[in-house]
Amino acid sequence: MLQGSSCRALVLEGRSVISAAEQTQASSLAEALDRVLSELRLQFGSRITDVTADVGRVLGAGQPGDVVAIRISPRPPADRFHNTSLPALIEPAVIRTMHVRGGHDLRGRPLAPLDLKAFLVELPSILSGGLRNVAITAVGSTASPEHETRIADAILSNNSDMRISISSDFYSSVFRDRDYTAVLNSALMESGEGLAAMLEEAGQRHFPSATLSYARNDGGRAPLARLAVAPVHALRPEPAMAILGAATLGGLPDGEVVVCTDEDVSVGNMRRGLPVAHSLIRQGYEAGLATNAAIVEPYTANHLVRHDIPSVVADARTSQDIPPDYGLVPTLPDARDLTLIGCAATPLTAWIDRLESVSGQADLQRVQNRAEEEARSAAVQLGASPTDTRIIESNVFAMPYGNPGIVRIRVQAAGGTSSHEEHGLATHSLGATA
Q1: Does residue 427 have a pLDDT over 60?
Q2: Residues 2, 21: Cα–Cα separation, whole Å
């Protein structure tokens, strides 16, 4: 957890958002948070019904915890060249790697029986080391997470305090991406727990009836308790929130959003009230981060402008003395605090992303309908109102490499909290730096 970070707050029609920003030497993050919430309470009192935290920079700057990586496949790597490689920033966090025989193919059929007996022989050495962070990745876990969950159950049955990430919680067709994401998630769990506890304590003290959430990479939010379980989804929310903030100010539920900052000009798209997202953050030749994140790209001179699609151009530069690049004409001049506005406007979001075996169009429609119902149900379980839950995305993708009958189902649902309806435009705003 960072010491000496500043906090900013914004209120949108009774909803507040806290965003970790640049470091200062004034006080600790907890003290800054307490001062901001105290000021908000004095000014707005019971009008604040939701508090949403953007903790991405704090998580990203923290020290990852040590992790034991358990990899399940029919056989161990033949040599160092075939070992799963992790990005340099997270590789030192893995202090032990263990191979377990097992894994599945894309149809969910076992490639090898899970060698649970051999794992149980090694388990005491894991539990006696004093580590709590474990990442489990199995071949084919997108089709069947059985071997991952059996290893996790074996660990938890001996020590329920272990922090475990399983790779099937993070969709990617590439083993390396899932492994990296599970390892990083596990390494950040302690920081997530600490941040969640701090925000919970401060939020309950100042706004005991408010709903507490954190901002996600897809432009949505989730209950604060989930931060301790899936911190990777809170690592990079700012691009999504800036797009959502500009769209909120411009009243644009669907269309293109261009944001001009001092550093660059970026562009994203809105669909049904949320940024269009993809399921992997690519990192050059390194493993990608398997988290749903808004698609935000650099705006270039060759950008195709479609006049049949509504758009918003937000000028978020510190100075508007000269026009933006590329001849852009701002529809939102002097746009401030876009990330904060996005956080304050964001709904609860839930995803279903998995492989299914289908036989024919009717079967395909059945599994897609089931996934949509499960996505709605997942959003409601997070706190969304059943009457205010909608499907944002529902897609089916054929799998490559000659696997007929295997499809990927990807569905996103979103909704407002059950206690009140979501609001679009800001009526009050407060910027406070502590």
Answers
A1: no
A2: 11
Instruction: Note the pLDDT tens digit of each residue in 143-176.
Output: 999 999 999 999 999 999 999 999 999 999 999 9
Closest CA to 103 of 58, 61, 64, 151: 151
142 Cβ contact partners less than 8 Å away, ≥ 6 residues apart: 106, 168, 171, 172, 173, 178, 354, 355
Cα–Cα dist 433/32, whole Å: 8
Of 107, 179, 177, 95, nearest to 140 by C-alpha is 107
Residue 372 DSSP SS3: helix
| Residue that the structure tokens 């990899």 belong to | 71
Give the β-pairing of 221-223 and 211-215.
antiparallel
The mean pLDDT of 102-116, rounded to a whole number, is 95
Is residue 290 pLDDT above 60, yes or no?
yes
Contacts of 396-403 spanning 24+ positions with Cβ under 8 A? 396/364, 396/368, 399/106, 399/173, 399/355, 403/106, 403/107
Cβ-contact 302, 209 below 8 angstroms = no
Structure tokens at 331: 């529809």
Query: What does the alpha-carbon distance between residue 257 and residue 245 come to, in Å, rounded to a whole number?
Result: 10
Sort strands 15-23 and 50-54 into parallel, antiparallel or unpaired: parallel
DSSP H helical ranges for 171-297? 175-206, 238-250
Please list, in sequence order, all residues whose beta carbon lies within 8 angstroms of the beta carbon of residue 254, skipping any fewer than 6 positions away.
270, 271, 272, 273, 310
**Residue 349: pLDDT band with limits 50, 70, 90:** very high
